[in-house]
Amino acid sequence: MSEDVREVRVQGERVASYPELPPEVGRGAVRRITVVGEDVLHRPCADVTDFGSPELARLVDDMFATNAVAEGAAIAANQVGVPLRLFVWDMADEWGVRHVGHIANPVLDELPADRRRLVEESEGCLSVPGPYRPLARPDTAVVRGQDMHGNPLVIEGRGYFARCLQHETDHLSGSLYVDRLSARDRRSVLREMSRTQDEVHARRAARAADLGKPLPLP
Asked: Which has the least CB within 10 A, 12, 13, 63, 126?
């Protein structure tokens, strides 16, 4: 994580210190990341209901491990093949704040007009390996849901973190960022992905080796 990080917020709460890798990464196993076109990415996910279960805790651990290997900002459950409304994140925003956490059953607040300032920034996706494209989104987001134990959770983000919260919530409704692009731009992204995905997968394999995390079979 960048040395520019000046503050860390875990589950939305400021903490005094935090390791470079979340503890979940050490416990978790790397899962295969699904790719645009696979059915699990293109249909709405089911609500999480088994709060407090070992299976849910294991899934959260595995998602953090998979995200770390892919050097992602965040990852949704259907990106590891599990159609549940759950995502995890570990990323720094433009103000040097590192955000780490998970949320189940997230719902984005409908922001009032005076808080809906659209910003166009480059956006990519672990399930669309390689390409990035400009996409306009509100620069503030508030998402409400639950943690893995079923406790209520409210997470607010600005800038890049707000984009992350919106992007991942989209995933759980069966939508990818490419679905917000024009048909022409979407075709361009998919052509570029076909050229770059092998290089991306090689980087992930190298990162997995660095972390001592075996990759799943294709």
From this structure: 13
| Helix (H) or strand (E) run with residue 130 in it | strand 128-138
Catalytic center residues: 168
Domains detected in the chain: 7-211 (3.90.45.10)
Please give the C-alpha separations between residue 100 and each of 20, 25, 41, 42, 87, in angstroms, as whole numbers: 11, 12, 23, 26, 11
CA distance 105 to 146: 7
Report the distance separating Cα 165 and Cα 172, nearest Å. 11
pLDDT in tens, 32-59: 999 999 999 999 999 999 999 999 999 9
Q: Strands 97-108 and 7-10, how do they pair?
A: parallel
pTM of the entire structure? 0.95
Percentage of residues in the chain with pLDDT exceeding 90? 93
Alpha-carbon span 50 to 56, nearest angstrom: 7
In this predicted structure, what is the pLDDT of residue 3?
53
- Grade residue 111 by pLDDT with cuts at 50, 70 and 90: confident
